[in-house]
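Entry for the shared binder. Reason: the reviewer on the internal report wants the predicted structure included alongside the sequence.
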Amino acid sequence: MQNDSLNTAFDGFMRAFEAFKDGNDERLAQLERRLSADAVTTDKVDRLNRALDETKRVVDDLALKSARPHLGGPAPRSGASLQHKAAFDAYVRKGEATQLRDLEAKALSVGSDPDGGFLVPDELERAVNRGVRNVSPIRAIAGIRRVSGSVYKKPFAITGAESGWIAETAARPETDTPILAELSFPTMELYAMPAATSALLDDSAVDIDEWIADEVRDSFAQQEGTAFVTGNGTAKPKGFLDYTKVDNGSWSWGNIGFVKTGVNGAFASTDPGDKLIDLVYAVKSGYRSNGTFVFNRAVQAVIRKMKDGDGNYLWQPAAKAGDASTLMGFAIAESEDMPNLATDSYSVAFGDFRRGYLIVDRAGIRILRDPYSSKPYVLFYTTKRVGGGVQDFDAIKLLKFAA
């Protein structure tokens, strides 16, 4: 039944795209004939554009639900896992912490401090992380590292070891050693606080693990999504737009390079897609093959109207439900945390984000049960530690909307 709904929604999305193309073709034809489009036609295209976004959102939501794992399946095999799951269930439903505290004390768990909460079962942690990855646009395309410490340090070479050609019998001169530096990615605490009624907790038919995963997933994803784009690195990850940005012609390590559109707050009126091509080729070939465009829905609405020199639309819908739409053959990640078009805005990013941006997850999600602060509701203070930042400054480029 769910697949039928997904297929029906995707068919509606494709029909909406065809209607949008017909309306936009009419608008472009009017522009060619009399240098301006009829207001009625322009309004029609804008309405079709919004309808296309809405049908795409419905398709994405249905695809996400169909792919979401169900936690109420077979029980874990190991006795320790079964014990932990039973103890965690008793703690969440009734506040009985003794058994859970004993188990975590035996495991020497860093999360066994009652003031800091208790570690959730492994399968619940995996479900939350999978769900957040599916919802968070940057997490879905970035590199991810799981660590046990509070800081992840990554060495990188500023200059590589010298090398060269030499004759077979010639003397081998001593080469310089590489110069190494270090990038540091501290993890910051991210929290959510879902609330439950006593009736829900007492209902044995309710899968409490699945309820927690559903409640915290969207909250974590929203906070992460903003931080990975615009975070300032203080008590949150550092977003890729918060680094120093320089014209790509004078790019150096530690900065993010940009290409200008040549127009303040807009694309050029003629051949607007040319600057998107310039942006793609500002990224070195080794990064382009896994390149992804990142922009918000409003910017996508503008780009969706563009054609190449042969009259083909640069933006193309996904081949099947759940896949990303493409721009010039490259995947698109929609992030509403990217800025709208404005003078000097960096509203489009492109690059290999898996190599360019690193997300660091500290192992373990903790929950602290609070039945007192908001009676009659029970609050569940849920925390995880996450860090993030640019790890390869050559892999991501920006489009600056400036003259």
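Summary line for the report: Residues 72-76, 110-114 have pLDDT under 50 and may be disordered.
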